[in-house]
Amino acid sequence: MIVLDTSVLSTAFRRRKKLEEESDVATLLKRMVRQDVPLAIPGIVLQELLSGVPTSDQFERLQAVAEGFPVLTAEREHHIVAARVSNACRRAGVSATTIDCLIAAQTIVARGRLLTLDRDFGRMAPHCGLELFAGTSR
Fold this sequence. Notes:
The chain is an alpha/beta fold. The chain contains seven helices and four strands.
């Protein structure tokens, strides 16, 4: 399973101007959808995607797009693993937000790979067992 981070969904569905790397990930995501690759989004990513949207029309459009992706809901185990991720990163001198630790934990528990443009996950991965989708967040 490929777990999608907010950075990927925002790039694909929210931003108007895209850098080359961002256009590449949007193309990759569209190809994965066409090929029926198992994709999912953590609930917190759904919330981040829909937050700060300036108009109701844009909110409704994003909500409709997100309906096509299964949502990983956070359970007790995810929060415990997120705390372990945070502690491992802290011991290694890597700063990680609570939300990023939860996204990492949900990816780890799902035995998935995270598709992201956020370089913070690349710094976290070696210390917590997070697998990144090849070519992202390096």
